[in-house]
Amino acid sequence: MTEESAQPERIGVLRPTLEAVAELAGVSRATVSRVVNGGAGVRASLRERVQRAVEELGYVPNQAARTLVTRRNDAVAVVVAEPESRVFSDPFFAQQLRGIGKELSAADSQLVLLLVEDTGDYQRVGRYLAGGHVDGALLFSLHQDDPLPAMAHRVGLPTVIGGRPWAATDRDQLYVDTDNRGGARLAVGHLAALGRRRIATITGPLDQTSAADRLDGYRDILPDGDPQLIAESDFTQEGGGRAMAELLARRPDVDAVFAASDLMASAALRVLREHGRRVPEDVAVVGFDDLESVAAWTDPPLTTVRQDIEDMGRLMARLLLRRLAGNGGADAARTTPASVITPTRLVVRASA
Amino acid sequence: MTEESAQPERIGVLRPTLEAVAELAGVSRATVSRVVNGGAGVRASLRERVQRAVEELGYVPNQAARTLVTRRNDAVAVVVAEPESRVFSDPFFAQQLRGIGKELSAADSQLVLLLVEDTGDYQRVGRYLAGGHVDGALLFSLHQDDPLPAMAHRVGLPTVIGGRPWAATDRDQLYVDTDNRGGARLAVGHLAALGRRRIATITGPLDQTSAADRLDGYRDILPDGDPQLIAESDFTQEGGGRAMAELLARRPDVDAVFAASDLMASAALRVLREHGRRVPEDVAVVGFDDLESVAAWTDPPLTTVRQDIEDMGRLMARLLLRRLAGNGGADAARTTPASVITPTRLVVRASA
Known about the structure:
six-stranded parallel sheet, elongated, homodimer, Rossmann fold, 434 Repressor (Amino-terminal Domain), 43% helix
């Protein structure tokens, strides 16, 4: 198929044609088509002439046609399966997107952000991912029943998942995770070392591996803990505040809290203050994330488990780009790096 | 071109073919292709058989090929030409995206979010917009030198702009704006009616029409105002705080401030408090936006100019979808509704 046979007729729009480029460059249409699609087998001098003509006329190759030839879009989807209200209020996503954006930008690949508001959206997002608009996808915030990894796998779209998936639909599935369980052990171990004896935890949604792993870390340190000291929540500020109030009602003698995210920890601080508890004197609090705009600014500043969120975004993008560069063959599978678990560390501030 | 000739060879991926669908449905490949591309001229009973086979096999038509036939992606780009750090910290964008998302979702069209971090990104974003991946685009936060409307126009991509553009590159250019000038007059008129005599303003970036129009509204009420009472800023919290500090240094006798966004107004409240000024007794403050998560929660709650941000997002999406539905001909231009200016009103709370 030649380039121009796919050139659409758009009514009322003057769009420079492939013929016009060929005429200005003084070459055949086939040559222009070859240059536009990567330039293989075209002399450098001819290629430059064509490129000058392309620029002069502002010619834009029809991408749908070009994609059929090159199989490249120079674009990567980032799919966040969380409500827009959460994506935009949780600095976690912004920091991760910043890392991804920097890495893709350096590779001249366009970041295409797709949000999944509710389960009805999966079908449409899956269609877009299958539609040849992106070269690969980074998938975020995967709850247990998230159908996207399987959808992407079925249509052969390379993906990297943010956070360990529950079950690998594909043994080559790449992901970047943080050491959630080890981080939680650091947090709870620190509270135990301070002599706290009634250490509660506020968890994230337990259908996410990050939340389940942090709870496992808590249990590693406190295998015989009272289940009343565990409050399941959802990683949000509102949820964290509600969970803290519940814990105070159930166990007024609580003397420490490990909240599995900084947003939940900051809400816990507020609820403790409203109930007249001093932090850390009466109740010590540790968070998780070390969000740059949150942890250092709470009152008192938050002791928390640091994960390098922006760097995780960069790593995800880098893994995907490497898989795309080696796309396809068995060789690529051998040289493509494996999934990554990034380390955590405890940042001690005033709250514990 | 038939559907299957464009079916890509992907190594190592089992992807159901058009032939498999034809076999299962007991119809010809041409019939499957026609159904997949819209079903024109295919009997309902045959169409249903094909659709059942498509679902059973999980067949996904090659979209690049399909797009060449249908010219439809069922996707709309939202381009925000602001740094990610601002997009994710300013609730304005989240509210507008919510409105857009609801409207597109109802039309089963995918929202594709593209951020422009710096001027180097325009080329890449323009390429994606030109690439046949979306049916149209909503363009936001246009500074005076933003090349995107012209880029989109050149490749014939229908657009609706959020905010009045400086110069229409196209007399049919659709936009949705709020009555910025009228809103500013309401705010400053209210302060004047309270008897305030040294009314300052903190502006947005004056290369955006929204900021320029709000300053014009201020000048409508105070044509002979002291230029020292005008502090140019950037719509952000940090910028608003800096501008308030400057105003206090230049004119310690200031007795009222119209800040052209709620985020700037909330920072102004904080800076005034730090300088020992009581609001509204010493200095009355009015904002602009009525952001749901900001205006009612400041201390004291903020008197502000309300614009219905979510509704503006819905209107933008609706205008674009209507233009797409009537795509192309001269008839469409006649029936497509014109740009919209939405009204504002003053919401009086404690700050003025």
